[in-house]
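Field: COMPLEX_INPUT
Field: COMPONENT_COUNT = two
Field: RESIDUE_TOTAL = 720
Field: MODE = joint
Values follow.
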Amino acid sequence: MKSLAELALIRKRMMDKVNLRKDDKIDTRIVVGMATCGIAAGARPVMLEFVEELKRRGIDNVTVAQTGCVGMCHLEPIVDVYVKDEPKVTYVHMTPEKVARVVNDHIVNGRPVEEYTIGAQE
Amino acid sequence: MDLIRSHVMVCCGTGCSSSNSAAIIEEFEKQLAAKGLDKEVRVVHTGCFGLCQAGPVVIIYPEGAFYAHMKPENVERIVEEHLVKGRVVKEFLYKEAVEEDNRIKSLENVEFYKKQKRIALRNCGVIDPENIEEYIAFDGYKALGKVLTEMKPEEVIDLVTRSGLRGRGGAGFLTGMKWKFAAASVSDKKYVCCNADEGDPGAFMDRSVLEGDPHVVIEAMAIAAYAIGADQGYIYCRAEYPIAVKRLEIAIRQAREYGLLGEDIFGTGFNFDLEVRLGAGAFVCGEETALMTSIEGHRGEPRPRPPFPAVKGLFGKPTILNNVETYANIPQIINNGWEWFAAMGTEKSKGTKVFALGGKVNNIGLVEVPMGTTLREIVYDIGGGCPNGKKFKAAQTGGPSGGCIPASHLDVKIDYDNLTAIGSMMGSGGMIVMDEDNCMVDIARFFLDFTVDESCGKCAPCRIGTRRMLEILERIVEGKGEDGDIEKLENLAKTIKATAMCGLGQSAPNPVLSTLKYFRHEYEAHIYEKRCPAGHCKKLLTYKINATKCRGCTMCARNCPAGCISGKVREPHVIDTTKCLKCGVCMEKCKFDAITRS
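Field: COMPLEX_OUTPUT
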């Protein structure tokens, strides 16, 4: 170790890997429906895309979790976004392509993407 | 590309390892691979979470779900339900973590953790102790960087002094002061040592720090070395801590690879390296002069002080020796400032203290509380009180050098000075809870037995004096105590305290003195009435058959190994107390509760 900068670099690189354990740092949860119906509809690439997109943007206060079937199998892949102190937003018929916009508009700028939500579908 | 979305933290401290957490890790890895989750869920080996009673313990993030008493056969369901479907398996959670309305409580709100403040144990159970990068991610080695690049040695010493940090090994000497003396000594070579020879029965604070966060000790020792002008350090760890030794060695190797030990650290020209030395199981080697003699390769025996180690220590050079827990506080004092540390605790004892809570208490484990927390809070709020509704009698702190604190002092604010004032001591942090079934004379005998065993034999008061005390105590618990024994004990205790050479000898009579102070009536009952009030001392018990309850079933007579029960069938039996061995078999076998013990 020859400099403080080198140490800071390791810290930054490792931060993403351990952030999950720092409860106080997490303010948003992205929950992907990953029951049989979700997986069959393509939830897995969606979830992986979320993880990657967050990493690309260096966002460290968001976790990606998964959940079971909520009963609306025809709307899968379903993704719920829980921003701290705000009502849950449910996105349906998600695809990996839609992920970037959800992260950009909703997670970063705080404006849910209305057209992808369950409200727009009905 | 790593897509880790969940961490499964499995405790690999000594407690959970001995209840086979290794098999749980293996099972998790197997199940995750079978479900194809091994690329997105990481299994992390960590140090002790503190709640050893609930071990083996597993925590799954990001939910922070706290699974207790894990069994390998439960792993499949947790993987299936929690990690695949995202449903926490409530029935396997630590019972208190599930609220009455079935919601899951966060870990900080569980009674056991609520009143705790984890500073020395900050990273225990949170990081993988075998991965230096995880330590760095949690601000590791930041304090060392700051010290080397921004601070002068005297500034470091000043900061540590102002924080009010006192030695956590037991004596409670101001750490900054110790460093100052060593820094002031002029010498071509100086040493920094760490005392990890934790020997008090029932104490395991240092073990948990070394197992859960070994890098913190390395970082703090490097800081200390810079402050006093040393370039070599030794960690003296007992060989009975194999996991701690292994992790320390891994940590030292990694620190060398990353250039955090060795030459020219952070490009500042500062050199420091470390070695581990193993103790061979002698209690006396926890005494500072004996410890250094042992590192030098001699028989571990203490020597008189002065000269103090800060002037003439290891290999005759100025040396500082601090306890593991003391070191574990240093990096955070540097990072957060002395004001932050000094704001916690009482007037003369700052910061927090780790206690190994054991004995007759529901939540056995490791707790870290701010100084000034009362014994009641530790035993009842954190520890959950005595099991089976028994009454609290006393808490033993300070190990064989400490004393017993009776129920009347439950509300004493725990710090160095208050504990000394009530006849016990802080010690290294062992805290053994005793209930109404514990005989205090026998407790004193137990600790004396330990000291007699562990006396190095160099000075007569300790070698001979403690043995005489033990003999008297053994007589008392066997019902052969005589008038005058208590006075003899007191006399011996005073002499040993005043004349023994090292701290261990001087404090050896403490368990007797403190039990005499608070439980003199128990000694008197043993000596004059030949009775053990707690019903613990075997030789003083008498078994009797209640003639009205006895149906004459002959069960007791047939099972008595001494053949001392006689009587005819369907008629009340009688125990011949002169032949009775007091084994209690008759009482166990009797189906009519006709046999009583007093």
